[in-house]
């Protein structure tokens, strides 16, 4: 989705503004949203890619004017209601009025440390060989899917060089809409600043993105 | 294997008395606090969320993870060439050697600054960041100005952070668009020959591992 | 500027929403803003391109969450203060506290009808011939100027066909920063939907943009 | 040739008594009304803006221009092939023949719908629109959804407006990125052989000249 989240290369936001003391959380509610989103992400009803998709589905103006955890909150509320886990009335009132729906897992307190210390790897073995090799010139495809994708607009149609082949990983575009993990080979592709931004680009810079195989095509 | 959720009529946390999570008394709550409290009440009462898990998650990421983990790795790499080589070649198991890993660090990549190339990490699409290595990201890392500008004008961004590099230094920007997570291995400052690993780690700032800063010089700490 | 105004191809805004009765103005203040912006646009202190630049210089989130005439108002306030015609305090209070600054022209009531009926043509004769010819294949340059430009992001780097050569016109990128009219040849360039949006584009559509000569380069 | 502005101490409209422009009494003013009133007071009192010009501008664009002008041109083109040819070849002087032109229509281009190709006009970057021909644009034309989508999914946009075209009809989108202004010349509906020019003009909707609609059929008016 070419939404408010696809920020690479946008202008007009003003300077980067580090905060004094850089608090991890700015209000008590931010902590709770963080924890709720993490816990519900393990409910089995959706996954991390789906949560990203829910966040970037906020209308662009709302996305860009919402604080970080407000985006998380709004997305979580949408997910909870869209999956039938609670009604809008319930989350507006805080009063349960409908039966609970089944979830696959409820993360227990004692599970947090071992589970999160182990992590949630997203590499998946794949029988087919990688299509592209290190050093190969490739073009980022021009795609504009209405759903989730991890190919940012600023590289689409641009030519780069394969820097690394990382193995095969869960494909977010599929996983986000709960259509399966559909793993693909994942590459790092390097683009010169001039290729991305034109002759007036800052000299001597390059940008590398991680690109799934279906995002790339060989140079004709 | 569906979990049988709690019956809302028969649980430990009746709606009228939401458990206290140290988020203030009701009379001081902002509209956002109230909104989140309502959501939390529903999710807990319906049995989807275990309050103990919530508390454990928040505590873990508020207090346990942080840039001290990354700093240890950097200091080790500075004193141990074999560790450095392993870190650059295969970061995830190498970080595990010093007890660093987990959620948000499943697939780590370490990129090394040299006199010729400076690395800068960003996530233009959301906020991908190596949690177990650096902790939760600061707001600026997640904010539109950084995400928009790091890929198109990295030198201008670096200058705002006080980092001015020679024109001959290439800038390598890493946009975290998949589940790989990046950490920058900065260059060891001069004048640190006498420091031990802990002393070196104290020079390694969080920003120097994102690429928006450089390690402190020992003199700067005096 | 890759700002909030550069909307072509963005997603997530939802449906187009025509209003019942389609009022031209939705509040009394909108009419006044319209008139003030038009009148001040003839003050000689700036021009239409500069006004567009001022509007798109609003931070993207603010641009996308402001109503149309609110954008005009905020831009006009910025122009008035940036050009020293009034202070922030004056426009906040409505009370004049600083001397007036000179303007080149004050549009009089009786001038409106003849002036606006005649219009403000922006074609300008140019001694040099047009570089491109009808039917020629051209590529829209990859440019990302921090200031005003009229080459939208969605065509940059894409290849199209010159459909028309329109004569030479005021170049907005220069005129907007009051650096002169610097006229250039203006073309209509047609791009296929597939070239702009990829294989999944709606079938059989094409988009034409008006492009100044410096926006284009010949195919290598 | 600098204009000598009014002396703020010596003018006709002291701040305490802003002239009434029919935007309501002070007690009913919204924050935006107050904000604009303050700006207007300053600009008028400092002599930059003539209130009579302001009123004339608003009246002109609120009441005088509108899609009836474009509709006249379309009807004429339907009945007068030579006019149609001139309109397509060089629209600006041809529209002047019927008294249509001025600000926002200095450089008109008319694009003709055919059974093979349907035209749709947008301004992705702002709100360019042929004012003397169609009046001020409706809000939807200036709004993000239309500006964003018309170029990437014109058929989906047309469908929302109730316009469904055969798959064989190409869609030609015109993005008004310079000072050219576009008007669509729609196809004459069938069953209109008996109508005179005024009768035909009454079938020509504003949307049919943007491309988001089609002319009414005579039956639809009964």
From TrEMBL, chains A, C:
Gly residues biased stretches: 1-12
Region Disordered, residue ranges: 1-21
UniProt keyword annotation of Lyase present: yes
Enzyme Commission number(s) from the entry: 4.2.1.84
Domain Nitrile hydratase beta subunit: 121-218
GO molecular function, one term: transition metal ion binding
Reactions accelerated catalytically: an aliphatic primary amide = an aliphatic nitrile + H2O
Keyword Zinc: no
Nitrile hydratase beta subunit-like N-terminal domain residues: 1-106
Pfam families to which the protein is assigned, alphabetical: NHase_beta_C, NHase_beta_N
Keywords: Lyase
Function: NHase catalyzes the hydration of various nitrile compounds to the corresponding amides.
Protein family per UniProt: Belongs to the nitrile hydratase subunit beta family.
Protein name in UniProt: Nitrile hydratase subunit beta
Organism whose genome encodes this protein: Methylobacterium planeticum
Automatic annotation (TrEMBL), chains B, D:
Residues given in the record as Fe(3+) binding sites: 123, 126-128
Residue span, Nitrile hydratase alpha/Thiocyanate hydrolase gamma domain: 32-212
Region named Disordered: 1-29
InterPro entries the UniProt entry points to: CN_Hdrase_a/SCN_Hdrase_g_sf (IPR036648), CN_Hdrtase_a/SCN_Hdrlase_g (IPR004232), CN_Hdrtase_asu/SCN_Hdrlase_gsu (IPR023900), Nitrile_hydratase_asu (IPR018141)
Organism: Methylobacterium planeticum
Catalytic activity reported: an aliphatic primary amide = an aliphatic nitrile + H2O
Protein name according to UniProt: nitrile hydratase
GO MF terms, alphabetically ordered: nitrile hydratase activity; transition metal ion binding
Enzyme class: lyase
Sequence similarity: Belongs to the nitrile hydratase subunit alpha family.
EC number: 4.2.1.84
Origin superkingdom: Bacteria
Keywords: Iron, Lyase, Metal-binding
Compositionally biased intervals (Basic and acidic residues): 1-23
């Amino acid at each position: 989705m070419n939404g408010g989240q696809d920020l690479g290369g946008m202008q007009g936001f003003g300077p980067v503004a580090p905060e004094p003391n850089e608090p991890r959380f700015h209000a008590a509610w931010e902590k709770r949203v963080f924890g709720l989103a993490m816990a519900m992400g393990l409910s089995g009803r959706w996954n991390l890619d789906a949560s990203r998709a829910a966040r970037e589905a906020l209308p662009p103006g709302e996305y860009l004017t919402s604080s970080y955890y407000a985006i998380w909150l709004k997305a979580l509320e949408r997910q909870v209601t869209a999956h039938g886990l609670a009604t809008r009335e319930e989350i507006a009132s805080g009063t349960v009025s409908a039966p609970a729906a089944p979830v696959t897992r409820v993360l227990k307190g004692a599970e947090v440390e071992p589970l999160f210390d182990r992590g949630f790897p997203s590499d998946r073995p794949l029988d087919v060989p990688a299509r592209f090799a290190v050093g190969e010139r490739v073009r980022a495809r021009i795609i504009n899917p209405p759903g989730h994708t991890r190919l940012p607009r600023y590289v689409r149609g641009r030519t780069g060089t394969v820097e690394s082949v990382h193995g095969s990983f869960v494909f977010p575009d599929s996983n986000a809409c709960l259509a399966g993990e559909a793993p693909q080979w994942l590459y790092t592709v390097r683009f010169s600043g001039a290729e991305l931004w034109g002759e007036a680009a800052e000299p001597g810079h390059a940008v590398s993105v991680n690109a799934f195989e279906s995002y790339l095509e060989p140079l004709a | 294997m569906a979990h049988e959720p709690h019956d809302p009529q028969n649980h430990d946390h009746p709606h009228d008395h939401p458990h206290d999570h140290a988020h203030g008394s009701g009379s001081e709550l902002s509209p956002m606090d109230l909104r989140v409290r309502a959501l939390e009440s529903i999710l807990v009462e319906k049995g989807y969320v275990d309050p103990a898990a919530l508390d454990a998650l928040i505590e873990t990421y508020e207090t346990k993870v942080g840039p001290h983990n990354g700093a240890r790795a950097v200091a080790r790499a500075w004193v141990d060439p074999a560790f450095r080589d392993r870190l650059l070649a295969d970061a995830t198991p190498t970080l595990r050697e010093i007890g660093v890993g987990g959620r948000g660090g499943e697939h780590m990549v370490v990129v090394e600054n040299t006199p010729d190339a400076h690395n800068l990490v960003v996530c233009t699409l959301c906020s991908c960041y190596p949690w177990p290595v650096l902790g939760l990201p600061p707001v600026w890392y997640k904010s539109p100005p950084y995400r928009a500008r790091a890929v198109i004008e990295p030198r201008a961004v670096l200058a705002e952070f006080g980092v001015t590099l020679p024109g001959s230094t290439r800038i390598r920007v890493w946009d975290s668009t998949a589940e790989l997570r990046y950490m920058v291995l900065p260059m060891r400052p001069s004048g640190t020959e006498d420091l031990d690993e802990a002393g070196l780690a104290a020079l390694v700032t969080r920003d120097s591992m994102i690429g928006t800063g450089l390690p402190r010089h020992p003199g700067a700490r005096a």
